[in-house]
């Protein structure tokens, strides 16, 4: 440990999920064209309309140019040099249970601390009502992760979805989107693209054309989803892009809490991740979507790392519906995402809680959009940004009140914490108000880990590294308390890992 | 970015026949030629131009605006007591109608009267305070430069009365004009500069004005900008300020909406201990527009800035505020505070605001706050229940909303005049809404 007492000296990123899993996989040759899309669609055995939908998206995509308004700098991605499909090779089509899953893959998840295997409850994959599963029920969520259903997506395919049967009992559909296309095509057809249209933006169009897999959730009328749902994404193969698509529908009076996590190996080149997430909440429904994003951020000199260009949008379509986004962003070389809420139903509520941490040469341009259409719609934005090293971070948000948004309200708070004098923290909030009965409040502050705070902790015998971590955790508290319990702990740890170690 | 147009504006050569036959000194002429070339063929800012996102739809430079404003001899010189008056009429400096300070240490001169050496020095400094990437139409001003005023204060000069610049557009005049002012405030000098735009015509007029203020160390400039003329006058104004060490800028910009109203205020704090206060009020009614864009650059450590802008939008009008604070790398110990509050007085009005922070140093305190709301029903009820009619009550509350800022305008006469004009403006809009 260095003698130095400066907070920035206690900030170092050690990426713990950077290993590569050596398993055989089927991977497309790099390149993007209509044939690739056709082949992809064919492999997935998709219905004809789906292929048409993809091709139309591709046509629209070809008309577009890559956006450049974000405050990030990176080498443009050569879309022809990446492969649009990579799947772990298997003898059978898809594993029906964990027993059929390549043990190498399972070890991957184990390394990641994803509780696919260690939790006895997960034996339930093979069939409902196993003793193990009953045990999980009896613990009543006491142990970490014991009551979470997981859909694991490895490169381009969903490998396994746990707890499916138990969820089915409650009427909840939780499966990969490829499966949903086979089994519930009517639902997919009805909602896919209804929130993020095919031509929405450059990367969303690309995703619409080539999305490989992702999660699908449908919670029927009046059902409160009995457990947390979770998807785990991992990019493994080289030269691939990951394009997943998530669609979550909460029917009238339904509620669901969903969490996604993600990691990728340490590589010198940049890999593209362009996902689309669509949420639809009907009358009185509630969707809570949490993200713990830990893609590989590149090394300390800014080499490699994931480009994370994601379009996430929720439509609070029904009356009294609610959509809540919580995100903890610690990974990716370049992040560019704005989880948004379109508050269409009267009295609907939108929330956005975010912690974004950038270190070394990471760049993040992230924020949210709250579009108020319905009467008495309310939204809250709490965004906390922490920049360290040479990183650059921007909060970019839009709060918009249309003339129809009588009595609508928004509160926004975005705070930045700078650690070191080589980083940047920026705020670009757009506020557009077209309704005189709507009220919007915006606040932002910028501060640093002060010498006083450090001294206070040091005096009490807390070592500097822990002190920084404590101060940062305190700074993020408002957001962490919105995460599901188990993940709040994980998020807290993740921040510690990201800030751990000393440079000087 | 730029400035071409479906119907191109009249070429520069045709548009100007300098008044009194005086030609610009060569160094300024060559600067004009450079700008002129630079904007040739450029497109006007549009919806996709970030800094014109909300205002480009008002930016209609009709061909009738192209010719230079011609005088009709029918000007409205509002008399103002206790000031040095400088008249810029239809974009042309009118020294005959002016009343300039005679004290030594204050030098006020037309650009066309500068000798080559002085002109060379001015040409070097012109356009250095504004970022032309974000003030595209200030570049147009330089491209059409024909004359201008240089106000130079020697070190430690303190001007005893405010210098009051009246930008007058004759009644019945039309077309466009491009006034230009440059202030060089020497070390430790002190002055109050007021700019007022006056017109009583009803023809479409475009005023594209640029004022640049260079504050040397310890200079102290109070800047008051009153843009309250009738709606037919379209304004695109830019004020660029460089603040030296321990120098102080105290700015108050007050504006009424119009067919097109845009003011860019860019302040660079370039010496340690510099301070800038930026206050602003914008009122819009009818289908008017007002767009305030401010930028404060903390270039060096230990500078402070305070910004406070308030907008009120009535009827179907549209008010915009965009404030940017940029803390450069190593500008440690900067303190910046930005506050923007807005009142929507009608359901059909629109207010867009974007308070930005761009920070590259860690030991700084920066905060910004923005609100958009409406008059408080409870307060209105309180007043009406005491026998005050609703319009009067609403006017009182609206005035209370801007009271703090009006109260900070340093000159009593101006403060009172502003207060009266704001009250009339607000009252009128409530009365109309009630009808």
Order of helices and strands of chain B: HHEEEHHEEEEEEEEEEEEEEEEEHHH
Helix content of chain A: 10-25%
From the alpha-carbon coordinates, what is the Rg of chain A to the nearest angstrom?
22 Å
Shape of chain B: globular
Global structural class of chain A: alpha/beta
Count of distinct strands of chain A: 24
- Residue share in helix of chain B: 10-25%
InterPro entries (chain B): Fe-S_cluster_assembly_SufBD, SUF_FeS_clus_asmbl_SufBD_core, SUF_FeS_clus_asmbl_SufBD_sf, SUF_FeS_clus_asmbl_SufD
Domain SUF system FeS cluster assembly SufBD core (chain B): 173-401
Region (Disordered) (chain B): 1-26
Protein name (chain B): Fe-S cluster assembly protein SufD
In short:
With 504 residues, chain A is of the alpha/beta class.
Question: Mind explaining what this structure looks like?
Answer:
The complex is a heterodimer of chains A (504) and B (435). Chain A is of the alpha/beta class. Helices cover 23% and strands 33% of the residues of chain A. A 10-stranded mixed β-sheet of chain A has the order 4-3-7-9-12-14-17-20-22-24, with helices on one face. In chain A, helix 2 packs antiparallel against helix 8 (202-210), helix 6 (177-183) crosses helix 7 and helix 10 (464-480) packs antiparallel against helix 11 (485-499). Chain A is globular. The N and C termini of chain A lie close together (8 Å). Chain B has 435 residues and is α/β, with parallel strands linked by helices. In chain B, strand 1 (84-89) and strand 2 (92-99) form a beta hairpin. Chain B starts with 11 loop residues before the first helix and ends with a helix. Classes of the chains: A alpha/beta (504), B alpha/beta (435). Chains A and B meet through strand 22, strand 23 and strand 24 of A and strand 19 and strand 20 of B. Strand 24 of chain A pairs antiparallel with strand 20 (365-373) of chain B, so a sheet runs across the interface.
């Amino acid at each position: 440990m260095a003698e130095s007492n400066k907070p920035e000296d206690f900030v170092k990123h050690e990426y713990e999920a950077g290993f590569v899993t050596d398993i055989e996989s089927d991977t497309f040759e790099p390149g993007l064209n209509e044939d690739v899309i056709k082949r992809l669609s064919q492999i997935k055995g998709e219905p004809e309309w789906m292929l048409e939908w993809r091709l139309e998206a591709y046509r629209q995509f070809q008309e577009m140019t890559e956006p450049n308004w974000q405050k990030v700098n990176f080498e443009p991605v050569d879309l022809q040099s990446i492969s649009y499909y990579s799947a772990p090779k298997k003898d059978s089509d898809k594993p029906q249970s964990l027993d059929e899953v390549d043990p190498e893959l399972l070890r991957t998840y184990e390394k990641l601390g994803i509780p696919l295997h260690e939790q006895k409850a997960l034996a339930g994959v093979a069939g409902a009502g196993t003793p193990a599963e009953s045990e999980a029920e009896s613990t009543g969520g006491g142990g970490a992760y014991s009551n979470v259903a997981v859909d694991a997506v490895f490169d381009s395919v969903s490998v396994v979805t746990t707890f499916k049967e138990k969820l089915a009992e409650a009427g909840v559909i939780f499966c990969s989107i490829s499966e949903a296309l086979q089994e519930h095509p009517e639902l997919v057809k009805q909602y896919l693209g209804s929130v993020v249209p095919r031509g929405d933006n450059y990367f969303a169009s690309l995703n619409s054309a080539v999305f490989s897999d992702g999660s699908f959730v449908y919670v029927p009328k009046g059902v409160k989803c009995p457990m947390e749902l979770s998807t785990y994404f991992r990019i493994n193969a080289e030269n691939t892009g990951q394009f997943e698509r998530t669609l979550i529908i909460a029917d009238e009076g339904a509620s669901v809490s969903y969490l996604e996590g993600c990691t990728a190996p340490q590589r010198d080149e940049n890999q593209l991740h362009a996902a689309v997430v669509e949420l639809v909440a009907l009358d009185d429904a509630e969707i809570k979507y949490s993200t713990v994003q830990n893609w590989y951020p590149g090394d300390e000199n800014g080499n490699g790392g994931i480009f994370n260009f994601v379009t996430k949008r929720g439509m609070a379509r029904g009356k009294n519906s609610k959509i809540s986004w919580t995100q903890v962003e610690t990974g990716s070389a370049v992040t560019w995402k704005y989880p948004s809420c379109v508050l269409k139903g009267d009295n609907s509520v939108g929330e956005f809680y975010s912690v974004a941490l950038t270190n070394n040469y990471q760049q993040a341009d992230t924020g949210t959009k709250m579009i108020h259409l319905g009467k008495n719609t309310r939204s809250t934005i709490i965004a906390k940004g922490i920049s360290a090293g040479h990183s650059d971070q921007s909060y970019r948000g839009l709060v918009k009140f249309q003339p129809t948004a009588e009595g609508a309200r928004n509160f926004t708070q975005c705070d930045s914490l700078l650690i070191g004098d080589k980083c940047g923290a920026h705020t670009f909030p757009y506020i557009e108000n077209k309704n005189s009965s709507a009220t919007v409040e915006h606040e932002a502050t910028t501060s640093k880990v002060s010498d006083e705070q450090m001294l206070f902790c040091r005096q009490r015998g807390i070592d500097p590294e822990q002190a920084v971590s404590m101060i940062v955790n305190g700074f993020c508290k408002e957001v962490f308390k919105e995460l599901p319990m188990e993940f709040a702990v994980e998020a807290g740890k993740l921040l510690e890992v990201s800030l751990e170690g000393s440079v000087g | 970015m730029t400035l071409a147009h479906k119907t191109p504006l009249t070429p520069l050569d045709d548009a100007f026949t300098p008044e009194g036959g005086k030609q610009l000194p060569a160094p300024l002429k060559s600067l004009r030629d450079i700008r002129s070339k630079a904007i040739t063929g450029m497109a006007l800012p549009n919806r996709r131009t970030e800094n014109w996102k909300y205002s480009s739809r008002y930016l209609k430079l009709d061909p009738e605006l192209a010719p230079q404003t011609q005088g009709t001899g029918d000007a409205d010189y509002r008399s103002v007591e206790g000031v040095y008056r400088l008249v810029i009429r239809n974009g042309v400096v009118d020294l005959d109608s002016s009343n300039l300070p005679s004290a030594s240490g204050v030098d006020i001169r037309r650009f066309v009267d500068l000798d080559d050496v002085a002109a060379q020095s001015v040409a070097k400094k012109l356009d250095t305070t504004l970022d032309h990437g974000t003030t595209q139409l200030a570049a147009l001003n330089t491209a059409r430069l024909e004359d201008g005023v240089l106000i130079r204060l020697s070190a430690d000069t303190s001007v005893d009365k405010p210098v009051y610049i009246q930008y007058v557009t004759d009644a019945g005049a039309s077309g466009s004009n491009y006034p230009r002012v440059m202030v060089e405030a020497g070390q430790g000098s002190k002055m109050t500069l007021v700019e007022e735009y006056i017109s009583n015509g009803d023809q479409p007029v475009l005023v594209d004005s640029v004022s640049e203020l260079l504050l040397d160390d310890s200079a102290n400039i109070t800047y008051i900008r009153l843009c309250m003329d009738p709606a037919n006058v379209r304004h695109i104004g830019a004020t660029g300020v460089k603040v030296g060490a321990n120098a102080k800028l105290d700015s108050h910009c007050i504006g009424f909406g119009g067919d097109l109203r845009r003011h860019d205020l860019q302040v660079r704090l370039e010496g340690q201990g510099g301070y800038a206060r930026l206050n602003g009020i914008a009122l819009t009614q009818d289908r008017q527009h007002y767009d305030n864009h401010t930028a404060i650059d903390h270039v060096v450590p230990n500078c402070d800035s305070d910004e406070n802008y308030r907008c009120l939008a009535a009827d179907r009008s549209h008010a915009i505020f965009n404030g940017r604070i940029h803390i450069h790398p190593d500008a440690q110990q900067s303190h910046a505070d930005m506050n923007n509050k807005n009142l929507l007085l009608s359901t059909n009005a629109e207010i867009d605001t974007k308070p930005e922070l761009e920070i590259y140093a860690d030991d700084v305190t920066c905060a910004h706050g923005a609100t958009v709301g409406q008059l408080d029903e409870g307060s209105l009820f309180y007043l009406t229940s005491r026998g005050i009619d609703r319009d009067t009550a609403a006017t009182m509350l609206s005035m209370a909303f801007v009271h703090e800022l009006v109260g900070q305008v340093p000159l009593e006469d101006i403060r009172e005049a502003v207060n009266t004009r704001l009250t009339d403006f607000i009252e009128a809009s409530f009365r109309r809404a009630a009808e």
